[in-house]
């Protein structure tokens, strides 16, 4: 929900693909430090990757999780997501407040295909509900998030490129929104009055993803995202600093090894 993704959702039928693949991902991304922040967070990452296309447990371009139900057009699974930390020292509006830690999210996700306008395209939806955990000198629960999403994917638009565009709403309960926008009374200042956050809308997102295979083992990914915070449930917070934001990222994935066994679906 809150993290940025450089991977384009898997679009092809998985029959004939390796059961597992091991590789290396390198990339960079830049995004607001938190939704509606005027400060940015930029990171470069080098990570090992594991793609596993099992009948139940799966780790692929569509995410990491456990598949509970699967038909041709509908799937119910347990999905995971993550977002990067931000230091309050680098955010003037949060000076003296706790840092924002790494967020790990998991929970049930219903997703499916609404239409296939052409053989190489499809219109899809996702309805995730996730618990949000913060890793920052320990592990703490920080509420729940929802991000209903509608996406249109095209497998080949020319020159080997695949594209998808996604529109989504990001909503949080009062605890998650307090994490981003709340100001405890003991941390209030004349410029940052105390504030108690409400549950509701965090952001409206429009994302464009692209990927291209450069060879049998190498694929490049890119994304750009525009966010609107208009209508936010917590626009009155002193930590709400702007009504729009943008994110972008670029990455390269190199497959080092793959199984001879094939995924069944």
Automatic annotation (TrEMBL):
| Pfam families the record matches | MipA
Chief location of this protein?
membrane
- Keyword Cell wall biogenesis/degradation (UniProt): no
Is Membrane one of the keywords UniProt gives this record?
yes
- Which GO cellular component terms, listed alphabetically, does the Swiss-Prot or TrEMBL entry include? cell outer membrane
Under InterPro entries, the record lists: MipA (IPR010583)
Keyword line: Cell outer membrane, Membrane, Signal
Source domain of life is Bacteria
Q: Which PANTHER family match?
A: MLTA-INTERACTING PROTEIN-RELATED (PTHR38776)
Spell out the protein name for this chain: Structural protein MipA
